[in-house]
């Protein structure tokens, strides 16, 4: 256990989350979230003095950069980490403009803009592309503060970029954000990294290089093991927002005081637990009945909806149609990096009017859920009534809105505005965002737990879409089926290629590419093969008869077939 990175460990709090009630699920996730601030075992999370000191150093670095000509701040990451970087860059650039300062924040996400709202996980294994993208974006600048984010201290895409910064210290100051000790950084080799370099080598160099900064608080395992979109993403957001806020408002506050504001706000979410649980229950039933969940919001609130929805695809192998987010204004498109035309693929709608939404949601399966995020013109009585007439559930997440709407009593309201203290506008918005993120993560995670996509606290239908997830899948099969590494790997590979033959002539990269064309339940089928010592074909047949994935672990499915 000791060698397992914290970000991949199982959290004792949620060991039985899969059999809990919706209220229980919400409480357990909340308890795990609070570990980010209050600590885990003998670690103090974001309240650790060493970490708080490092955050103050980070503030000085940002402040200096903001005041230096010909300099930029680049935020880079893969998956959720890249998305949080994008949102921070966009938000704080706006603040720069409001203060008549040049917008200095830039973002890089592995896989480009499409990866902001769709799952493109494989790019995180490529240190060469990471480096090229960094070179390209920083080419014309003299000074660069580079912030590489990888919750597990694992993504080679970010590792390659940090390596490039370390090799060019006259231009780059590198900062690494993640949530494991350096000793637990990933030591797996990836094919594209020359000299057999691993992330661990780079993390070690970062730790021992003067001027480089590593911010790696231990915030405890995720509620669903390995789901770093949850606590990892939240802690990343709190770190970035705290530092950029302090740097840009020339505030004499210390990082500790700002972190305390987040802790209090997130802590008070408990009072809305019952209402969130009601929505989790509806959302779970919705997925079980093959209905859909839709989020609608504008500006960054809308983007948080799209992000939460898109992350369910790799985590739970859900169909992209199960949960989708829709924008009600054009904020998202306006803030994207320039890319070649047609390169951007987004499942979401932009600038939807209530009429557009009404048409888009026309064919939603009965008893779907539409979640409206905060106040906006799209939340109109006529649209709500039209959707309700079709039997859909309507949820309104109220956050910063002070208005009350003429909505009928069948609209379920989650009132998160109670959690936002009165402080300045920038801080209020950031607090609103983190609370919204946690609420959406709870709804989508809870719904998938209820759908049976989690056994104990393990994501048993994870999509094997990069090297990290390939090894995670093998660990899941090994531990749940009690088989050795070789058996788990063999079954996984056979399930990926949908064959009963043994495959020995392919690389991990090829396995991952093959997953892109296989939308079956790759891990559950491999798990069944290992559990019942049967062939791919037999396991697939059993799987097809098993509507609830979790049942294969409890034996319900095996005995019924
Ligand atoms: C990056 C990431 C996660 C995603 C999935 C695959 O992880 O893309 O955001 O949820 O687990 O990996 P990391 O580099 O931040 O550890």
Automatic annotation (TrEMBL):
SIS domain: residues covered: 62-258
Pfam families for the chain: GKRP-like_C, GKRP_SIS_2, GKRP_SIS_N
Residues of the signal peptide: none
GO molecular function: carbohydrate binding; enzyme binding; enzyme inhibitor activity; fructose-6-phosphate binding
InterPro entries in alphabetical order: GKRP_SIS_2, Glucokinase_regulatory_CS, MURQ/GCKR, SIS_dom, SIS_dom_sf
Gene Ontology BP term (one): response to fructose
PROSITE patterns attached to this UniProt entry: GCKR (PS01272), SIS (PS51464)
GO cellular component, one term: nucleoplasm
Alphabetic keyword roster: Carbohydrate metabolism
Protein name, per record: SIS domain-containing protein
